[in-house]
Amino acid sequence: MKMVKRFLPLFLAVSAVLAQDTLHRPEENQIPGPRDAGDFDAWLRDLKIWRAERLTRMGYNDAEYARPELQWAQRDFVQPQMMCEERYFYDPVQRRYTVDRYLDDLEKRYGGIDSVLIWPVYPNIGIDNRNEWDLHRDLPGGIPALKKMVEDFHRRGVRVLFPTMPWDNGTRDPGMPHWEATAKLMAEIGADGANGDTFSGLPRTYRTASDATGHPIVFQPEIAPASDEGLMWNNQSWLVIEFGFAPPASKLKWLEPRHMIDVVNRWGRDHTDDLQYAFFNGVGFESWENIWGIWNQMTPRDGEALRRISRIDRNVAELLVSKDWVPHHPTMQYGIFSSMFPGSGRTLWTLVNRNEFDIAGPQLKFQDAPGRRYYDIWHGVEIQPEVNGPFATLSFPMEAHGFGAILLVEAGTQVEGLDKLLTLMKASAAVRVQSLSAEWKFLPQQTVEIRPTVKFTEASAGMVQIPAGEFLFKVSGVEIEGSDWIGLDVQYPWENSPRRGHATKMQVKSFYMDKYPVTNAEFLSFVESSSYKPADDHNFLRDWKDGRPQPGWENKPVTWVSLEDARAYAQWARKRLPHEWEWQYAAQGADERVYPWGNQWDDAAVPEPYKGRDLPGAAAVDAHPRGASPFGVMDMVGNVWQWTDEFVDEHTRAAILRGGSYYQPQGSIWYFPQAYKLTEHGKYLLMAPSKDRAGTLGFRCVRDGN
After folding, report:
1. Which CATH superfamily is domain 446-704 in?
2. Does domain 36-239 sit in CATH 3.20.20?
3. Which residue, 17, 151, 231, 261, is the most exposed by fewest CB within 10 angstroms?
4. pTM to 2 decimal places
5. Cα–chain center distance at 586
């Protein structure tokens, strides 16, 4: 008896907790479906009880979803993350944003988009100390051009988001909290939202700061809010989903049907599961194809599936936010899963076929009512129910791994735009989605030509002769992401695809290379002699003062020069930029050494790394003679990055940088990685000189020999 009295309070406390629990409940951010048809009623009842309790515990307030200026997020069904370096987006020759070209391509391939997330930061951030907000402002034309570009998207009915990241605390201090810097910039640009890179829910301070600007924006964290309370001010979120045969329902959607989720599978080559999850839950899809400069285009099959589901979503958007939506509404055949979205005078069912074979015949059964009409909007036709007593049964076909959509219209209800939707969907249904190609293809690259110079017979002042020889050119990219994907890094002329690792034996002809990187004094001679002034001069020679190098900086390597600036200098000097393999041969010789001076790192051979948040400037080019290569070429590693080859494909441009730099921003693994070893190179995405120029990026030149 004493033992019972002793543990009675604990027993009562545990019982109280369990009494608030339910048999069916979410697992992390997903809700598994009922075990079988007989379990459905209990499953749905339990989930409604769980939701009511959870909203109470959260003290849920839906004010952010009721705000008219943020409600566009509830209709945001297709959004690509787009690298600002995307060649369909900006023309560096014409120096203009090509928004219409970009959008026309997406409409042609998969039916268009509702918003775009423009990405101007990672993977280039950290090459110098420009922070995330600086890199936005360095986009071509600055803030005025960005505002006009955003207006061009708005003219086409597309909302615009930009990123913000909590990990950028190693570059230039913005002088204010991240949330204030982000809110201020988004208001200046006229952006509609901010994506929180690596955020599991943006903190409420972002909402407060944005509202204070008078230009409130939508917040979209990369990861579902770690706390459900974050649902109250994060109107959107991303989701990476993997599931088995039965699709789960979204917990966040169940808690707040107006919360928009974008299903993300950046490396996916088959988006069947992603699109089926999105359609089943009535949420969006991140149509991400340019992944950090690696092109991962959706297949024709996935593109057509996205076109059809997004067309339906946009036409029934007000039903997809129904507070009475029911996931896993019972169906009549194995492997067919459905969600029901009731609304005023209408009810929608979205269905997915998880089987590897077509399904036809009876699919849905429910109580009938006089005057109802039923539309198979996936196939664009009205269908007649089989009525048996009070019940109506609907029969319609579904492709293997396919989709279905049924719209019930109550008697007397007029549905605006329904006839047009049915006409479009009927025309689309003439082609089976599964008949289209599901073959994924990488995008080949080409090397931009470097024209040879006239042949020289002896070295000119400041140049070193590099003798002809056999050379094993072996190098790999240091990209942080991409694993060993085909399509990653670059494709040399002798390769049949881009890839991370490269190795080939070659006969290198004799050439002459600058002993040192081009200095500020040498570049000043060029500017004064040629009156050179680039058309896009933002950030050009940014660390000069009054048109000249700072006193004492004459013998430092010139930086803040674009690839175009470097080429202009080389042409003036009757030289050219080196191919990467020439740079590596001059640095390495024929013995495959790891560094120019040998196989062991030598602190005295390079400048001391700088790990602060400002940018103090590089060392003089002749300050570290112990860093000499076997041929006597100096300052190859650890002072400033150096331009070499440029690579292009239909959607991306990039340059290969060699040598690394003295600048090492701290606090994050996501900053532009160093490549000090001669078997490593950096891939630097290119957009326009204003953004490409960097405070740690210079160059050296070569001449061709006999």
Report:
1. paralog of FGE (formylglycine-generating enzyme) (3.90.1580.10)
2. yes
3. 17
4. 0.95
5. 37
